[in-house]
Design a protein that fits this description.
Helix content: 25-40%
Strand order of the largest sheet: 1-9-8-5-4-2-3
CATH topology of the largest domain: Aspartate Aminotransferase, domain 2
Distance between the termini: 20 Å
CATH class of the largest domain: Alpha Beta
Radius of gyration: 20 Å
CATH superfamily of the largest domain: Type I PLP-dependent aspartate aminotransferase-like (Major domain)
Shape: globular
Bound molecules: pyridoxal-5'-phosphate
Length: 366
């Protein structure tokens, strides 16, 4: 039996006929750029998150970049971001000419509020919490630190569409939040895609112009310098299809996470992610990431059993990319990256797949 880490060809099978119909519909209308399917998708997301504005953009990285641009984050500014994230989070800050200031993780693997506090200087403009693996950071602490120091919060929720912290959806805490629609993300399309959400009218207006060459959506006149960062209308039409079953998809992920947690809880070598029923968090399990003191041997064993694993972000925290020149120490993040890996987690998994993953891990310890 073979359970790849992510089964890309199977992605289309979820709703194949509906995708085919959407393709025929959009292409027969010749509706490729900024058309009604994109508008509909943005409306659907607004309803799903209860947020005032949702803007489809080229990808999750551009969503961050355009958001920071709209907030005028620039050279001389510092933005605090966890070292435990994808390169796109600090890159969006650096590409603005601003300085990404890295913070360590807390014991739960998420951005550490105490370390954020230590990293604040007179140049700090914003905090960028990253909702890694579809779980929110300790947003009460982060929001109160931001308030106390007059900082903006910009959320990289690329992995967390539908996650909640005390009933507030990821992406809606601060000035803006961003999501990725990359194929392997929880709401993936058939290529690149991204989203920015905000409750701020002025910010939304700027991002709408920035994604479309600085053109005002109302008048078509150029009002500012902009770029081309639009979500394809065709991708939006596919996303509208997938969004209809999205809540069930989240439930399925949570169910798989429950099964994994239950199956592995007696294995002392493993450190598991928090279980779905845990606490104030509603996690959507973009990834099921665990830690093992015998990672190398375990993942080799799983490979032999046909189970795909992946070490997130090529096994490196941001400060571990030598060329980027960070010199501070991040002990918790370092320790985490020595042991972390991910096992298959997606709605493309059958019950047989899940059983095979569980049996394969158990057989390593027997
Ligand atoms: C996927 C991801 C991004 C980037 O999204 P793209 O759509 O691939 O540009 C940014 N941040 C995090 C944490 C991600 O996981």
């Amino acid at each position: 039996m073979n359970v790849p880490f992510f089964n890309y060809p199977r992605l289309i099978e979820l709703h194949k006929e509906q995708y085919q119909r959407a393709f025929d519909d959009v292409t027969s209308r010749g509706a490729y750029i900024l058309q009604k399917d994109l508008k509909a998708f943005e409306e659907n997301i607004k309803k799903f998150l209860g947020v005032k504005h949702a803007i489809g953009v080229a990808d999750g990285t551009n969503a961050l970049l355009l958001g920071l641009m709209a907030l005028d984050i620039k050279e001389g500014d510092e933005v605090i971001v966890p070292s435990h994230t994808f390169i796109a989070s600090p890159a969006s800050i650096a590409l603005r000419g601003a300085t990404p200031v890295l913070a360590d993780m807390a014991d739960d693997g998420m951005l550490c509020p105490e370390d954020v506090k230590r990293k604040i200087t007179s140049k700090t403009k914003a905090i960028m919490p990253v909702q890694v693996n579809g779980r929110c950071c300790d947003m009460d602490s982060i929001m109160s630190i931001a308030k106390e120091h007059g900082l903006m919060v910009v959320e990289d929720a690329a992995q967390a569409l539908g996650a909640k912290y005390k009933d507030t959806p990821a992406g809606t805490f601060g000035a803006f939040g961003t999501f990725s629609l990359y194929p392997a993300k929880t709401l993936g399309c058939f290529g690149d895609g991204g989203l920015l959400v905000t409750n701020d009218d002025d910010l939304a207006k700027k991002v709408l112009m920035l994604r479309d060459h600085g053109r005002s959506p109302e008048t078509g006149e150029i009002e500012i310098w902009g770029t081309n960062s639009r979500l394809d209308n065709l991708q939006a039409s596919f996303l509208n299809v997938r969004l209809q079953g999205y809540e069930e998809e989240i439930n399925r992920r949570r169910e798989i996470a429950s099964r994994y947690n239950e199956a592995f809880k007696t294995l002392d070598d493993l450190i598991l992610p928090p279980a779905p029923e845990a606490d104030v968090h509603f996690d959507i399990y973009q990834n099921y990431e665990l830690q093992s003191y015998s990672r190398e041997a375990l993942t080799t064993h799983l490979k032999e059993k046909g189970v795909g694993t992946l070490i997130q972000w090529s096994g490196k925290a941001i400060h571990q990319h030598k060329a980027l020149g960070f010199d501070a120490d991040y002990p918790k993040t370092n320790a985490f990256f020595e042991k972390c890996f991910m096992i298959p987690m997606s709605t493309l998994l059958t019950d047989d797949d899940v059983n095979h993953v569980i049996d394969s891990i158990k057989s390593f310890y027997n």
